What does this fold into?
Amino acid sequence: MASLFEDKKRGKWYLQFYDASKRPKMKKVPLKVDSRKHAESLAAKLRFEYEMGKFDPWNLPKYDRALTISEVAAAYIGEREGLREKTVTAYLSEAKLLAESMGVEVSIHQISAEALKKRIFDPDASSATKVHRYKHLNVLFRWAHKNRLLETNPLDDINPPKLEKRLPRYLSGGQLESFIQFVEDDVKEKYALRKARGGDLLWLSPLIQLAVYSGMRRGELISLDWEDVDFERGYINVKNNTAFKTKSGHERAIPMIEQAKQVLTAWGSVQNKDMIGPVFTGKQGRRLNQEMASKRFRDVADRAGLKKGFRFHDLRHTCASFLVAAGVSDRIASTILGHSDKRMMDVYAHLRGDTLVHAMNSAFNT
It folds into this structure.
């Protein structure tokens, strides 16, 4: 049983529940709305949730309505276990940048749909960035609504941005060979001119080659330890650990082709003859930093004359393009690449043209 009433002196609305089996028997729940219309609507919702056992007024959420978006992000992260460091950083960063875009850190319920639209649909942002902003902010506002910090989620009335489809960038066999040669010559020149020393940059060519020959993501490569490289059975094992989790959350074993084996064997003889600890290390034998690795890659890719904006992740696309061109099925390619959804291979459909032609010719012209 629950009755709605207004504290006219304060202009506040409350819903009072009664249950003789509880202590205390009556529990007053502040609705934190300003009008009767909103109070009646929220009261009806809470009564229904109470009857269904989804709302317990004697055990209300511990969060306060006055939380800022940054505090909401911190509270949400605190409730979630096993979030990757990159994911945690993304939530905190989006919350901070939203507050900065408004000019002041305000309470979550004071952030309007218009302010969110302005932040998400910034005309200078790429479609991928818009999708990224909407995704992370929607999670935070949905969590705030669930914990009754908000009457509604303002993002429910905003159509999510669409990701512009573009063909993946990748290197052909000839381009890959030329690029690797450029990288190795560039590193040698830097050492000759004493612009690099110690273990700096020696890892660059092996890292690039293994990215292509395994299809591993940047984080997977940098988190790789020598104990995960099984030379005897011919597999590279991508594992989760306390400091790293794969994008899909699933571990996998990647067949080690001859090129990958040669790269790892040669690199191991230079980097760590005992093959213990991290596979890719830089100065003083420390594990590489992901952002630093990407920065070094972008620099050499630009100077090598690769397509503008060619990213380290495009080496993974290069691996995928080789698999598709060889006629490997989407299911098998997705397993090798660690895709959670084989439909992610659809972006390579245009590469199947020659493969399909070859298949038809083979079938009817044997």
Residues 2-51 form one domain. The chain has three domains: 2-51, 69-157, 173-360. The chain has a mean pLDDT of 86. The beta strands are 2-7, 12-18, 26-30, 229-230, 235-238, 252-255.
